[in-house]
Amino acid sequence: MDLDQFLASSVKTMLKLGMLLSRIRCVLVLIVHFLNWCPFTWQCACLQIFLLQVFIEATREGSLTFLLARFDGIIGLGFREIAVGDAVPVWDNMVEQGLVSEEVFSFWLNRDPDAEEGGEIVFGGVDPKHFKGKHTYVPVTKKGYWQFELGDILIGNQSTGVCEGGCAAIVDSGTSLLAGPTPVVTEINHAIGGEGVVSAECKLVVSQYGDLIWDLLVSGLLPEKVCQQIGLCAFNGAEYVSTGIKTVVEKENVSAGDSAVCSACEMAVVWVQNQLKQKQTKEKVLSYINELCDSLPNPMGESIIDCDRIPTMPNVSFTIGDKIFNLSPEQYILKTGEGIAEVCISGFMAFDLPPPRGPLWILGDVFMGVYHTVFDSGKLRIGFAEAA
Predict the structure, then answer these.
(1) 126-196+302-388, what's its fold?
(2) CA–CA separation, 183 and 202 (whole Å)
(3) Which percentage of the chain shows pLDDT scores above 70?
(4) What transmembrane ranges does the database entry give (predicted)?
């Protein structure tokens, strides 16, 4: 599954080019009008802005989820580089028509399910009552989605080591959870007690090749060469990322063996390498990664968590710029139902995007609900501050 398919996986609509209902158009205009003290009248504002804006209208919706949803559509706020055809995105149109005082829009997502306000998006600035302190800004590294470089990821206070050289990440309010590469999400969900699936291929690799993987890494063999050296993988000459750091390796052909075994080997290499950095013994490391093989993220959806364990779960932290952004268990665990019907779900899910666009982290609503987010298209940067 590529990035576009992932971000749109739940949108099962047949679309045609057209205009949204005038009711929706005018609601959007009123937001811009109010925030920027637009001199146009209500009717003129509608005509002035949206006769120049291309929309897509859903003519049939086959998903019951979307038929019952409390929203009328999705607005894309990415860069023009990923716009379909020659369509000018809504935000670009606002800027080009001089409808905003600053080339900035910002999000506040309210995580309180009992609150009347679910959140706020401000076009043309920020709302100071919805964040604390100052924002930490990082540059946009690739125009398309709002992409930036993510630093180290920590479970508790322990570095996972997977992003020491930087990982690509995007911020996306259309993604409910926080998505990342399977090896790291497996470690996170294992640490918080998430129910996963047992991988026979993973256990096979650990039992038969675990010692050899350890020895090859200790000898100094490059991680991306290990599975090829063992004979579980053979490659075809493309870009390859095994530990979150992009490298170019000599690849020969498609997998020499079963692709699932090859993938399991690559995950095991990531895990062993990370544990080596923490100076663990071979026996302890192989036992640990064998446990990880029992708790791979469910490919069909989220991982279930024992609600009673929340007070003992570790923080999960992300390094952005020069600051560490913590997520507490109460912030990354989602609850549904009440009483005996209450279910707790991990806010982390696996998402593997192949090179050259991946691997990639997606900081969705789980993260944005905790941190007020500023998208600055004028200075090509993204800012995060504690939400209030």
Answers:
(1) Cathepsin D, subunit A; domain 1 (2.40.70)
(2) 11
(3) 80
(4) 20-42
